[in-house]
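hey all, quick one before standup. I had two proteins in the batch that finished overnight and I want to keep them in one place so we stop losing track of which output belongs to which input. First protein below, input sequence then structure tokens straight from the run.
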Amino acid sequence: MGRPIINVKDGVVRMPAWRMAEPVNFTLNDGEQIAIVGPNGAGKTMLVNILTGSHPLLMHDPEYDFSPSTNKSLSDNIKYITFRDAYGGDNDRAYYLQQRWNQTEINENTPTVSDKLDAAYKRAGEDNAARQALKEELYEMFNMKVLLDKHIILLSSGELRKLKLTETLFSRPRVLIMDNPFIGLDAGTRDQLKQLFSTIIKQEKLQIILVLSKTDDIPEFVTHVVEVKGMRVGKKTTREEFVASHARLDSFVLDKNISDAILNLPYKNSDYNTHEVAKLNHVSIQYGNRVILKDLDWTVLNGERWALSGQNGAGKSTLLSLICADNPQSYACDITLFGMPRGTGESIWDIKKHIGYVSPEMHRAYQKDIPAIRIVASGLKDSVGLYAKPSEEEYATCRFWMKVFGLESKEDTTFLKLSSGEQRLVLLSRAFVKDPELLILDEPLHGLDNYNRVLAKNVIDTFMRRKNKTLIMVTHYEEELPTCIDHRIKLIRH
């Protein structure tokens, strides 16, 4: 066993609101690579906040030994990157949300990948041969050179992930803590990332702590696992011991009474019930010189269940934005939704009444610290936040869907007080609350633990047994697809 790099002994947070159920004991020894795992809302992030010093302790602070690094600064030696959504990073949220679909406003002041990386490299220290070699290695491993001239607002979620990691690794931290670094990445990029981490921990004095919700994909470079359950930090075990002791879940965990209740929900009189839900004719989208979609023909019929796949940057999010009526370019394209051609007088809100939608981008948009049930209720009006008081009947519907996703006890908890996984379950409840004809689910299982991933799949499968229900779902994990999928479309990156 190597010497302790981080050592927390009987740690109790000063602020009562952020305390675990019992004193925290945690040690990261030299040479260890640790995965912190556990259910959504179990306290994983609280443990990280203790390790990084964000939640000061009573009596005594954690002990740190960052040698051979001569830099004693805690913030320089421990870097924490959260990937709670696809667009994690330090970029201004409002800028992203306003500019993502306004690429015509790109000008000479719009930052590129090169701009961001150059600034991060300079902040990280003086230029020398060793740092130049590290820079070249990172660029090579992440294939960053092809992205250097690309504007930030045009990056896919996977590309943004690579950018943020590259920026962080420039500073050569002693400990790198990452929250769900693999979500939103295609299989090739996930494998590349795992290989990069394996390479770096061998070549650099770097130790990695992963915070993982998905525990059936723990990378092989991880040496030990710490499980957090019920606001208690468990004992550190080897990766092999943890894998051997955790059996796979049943394939169906949704309560039968709830399943029957979903199937027996009353139908609305205002449904379109059209034969063609979406029809795209020779649709092309281009931002500057970058071709996103080219001559795409695609028809989605009532009752079909589509899996949409493709590499990061292939145009999946762009395609979904056209169908959701969020992309201004949709009016310049030959697109018919629910039998109505775009631009013939239908309102965006009329369309959205029939669509349930959740995505990493939406998760980023929700920074409203209001009670969770009000977030769910906002789905009835397709608003960000809630600006009209729902009726008691509407609140009852919200409570039903929160119960479906195991959120009965979280009704009055404010959104930002929930764990990232619990927030995603709230947004899933929001997508279902109006009993939509078309479900568009873009990486809906991001950040969910193993149980809630199975639960969400069960809910989707059950819901799709109702008549006149259509599904388009994006995921980079084949095992996350519900069993109801009967059609597939794959986008190729241009």
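OK second protein, same deal, sequence then tokens:
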Amino acid sequence: MSEGRGLPAIDRRAVLGAALAGGAGVAAARVLGWRRVVEVDPPQLTAEAVAKRSGLDWVSPLGDEATRVAHLLRRTTFGYTPAELEAAVADGYQRTVDRLIETPPAEPPPLAGADEASQTKPLSFGALQTWWTEWMITGPTPFAEKMALFWHGHFTSEFRKVGLQAPYVYWQNLTWRRFFLGDLRSIIYQVTVDPAMLRYLDLAQSSGRNPNENYARELMELYAMGSGTFTEDDVKAAAKALAGWREPRTESMVKAQIDEAIKRTGSAPRNPPKPDTVRTGIFERGRAYQGPPLAFLAATRQWDTQTVIDRILEQESVAPFIARKVAAGFLSPHVEDATIARLAERFRKSRYDMRTLMHDLFTSPEFTSPAAYRALLKSPVEYMVSAAKVFAAPQLAKLAIQAGQGMGQVLFDPPSVGGWPENESWISSSPMLARINFAAAAIAQLRTVPRSDDAHAVFLDAPLGPQTLRLLNEAHDDRRRWTVVLCCSEFQLK
């Protein structure tokens, strides 16, 4: 182990050049569709061979079983420790796929005070972020956490509107984990009655007489079907049919309301609300739509929440829409229509079983093709968590939270209902410099770091760009070499 806490004396300009020109520049080439990839079997991975190649070309080593496993772990988890990689390689690719998908999600330890959040004792936003980030780093079911992050970006809601005076944002995170590979019907229903979503997209304020269209619109356009697949009349009908839900009230929220009334008027309310015992929305029939049958997606009947969801799932657009969204997050930003059609057909036939979709994706020839290798750029959260996992250092969670703002990704605070941008959207000099600063600060915080002799082989695979090779050769101690490893393009990509 290497001792000391001093900031590695490394030229940030050189590292940024490697991350942008040979890194984010390469990342941009990959995500923007430059596909000049050569498959070598067995791969020729000498420094001399790599140095002769253009910076836009990767030697794809995915013909090697061990490298395929590492590739799988980068896509399905937040990276790995050397021990985790060794165990997965021993299992082999197929068994690792099966284990990731079939292992039930582990529940994180409860966040102290979260369930009791109220108007007088709001959730700590920093504590909430730290709680999840630490669990991403240390949790025993990382694929579940990766899927929870995926659903967080897909079915978005954010703490600024939901508020921290209720446990709703915390509960929503637990929901993503519990349903991470459920069937899409169950997932969408849980989304619809989720208290955070009820507040975020105003469904809790919607009644049959005064329907709010926000959730109905986003359910079809962003969550299930895509744009151009429905009409404004469909939105209006769905808004009426989905109306009638309200948010649950916890004992702490009711007590805070009563205490506030006493403070304001000197006495408790004559008929105070009763706390609810569930963590989902409450349906009030008196606020629901009571009118004649509605025409929705070319069918006319009396609708309720379940039948609206069922009708949506009958649409041909759903399976390819979800398949493409998943493929963009786990395979490549540019997936052939034929691949999407094949995945979508199986997904539809499985009754929208997410396990089937993810298994088909990870075992597809496209997933381990040369074109897929290093085709995705880690989001800021993925990058920081994967860096912390390298050192098995959950104490870096607070640093990651502080750095997230500068990189453009803050947990529980997506920029819009459309979620965060992906891939090439993360590429610019300022966010990349923030990554480099995070890496340097993270290494400086660690009392000791592991020996770096084989770091490039374990965490970067073998095909390294010439700039990365040069910086590694010029770094003459462990902390400098680790800084290069975490900042280089090969680590930024997944």
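Flagging for whoever picks this up: The longest strand covers residues 294-296. Residues 1-10, 21-57 have pLDDT under 50 and may be disordered.
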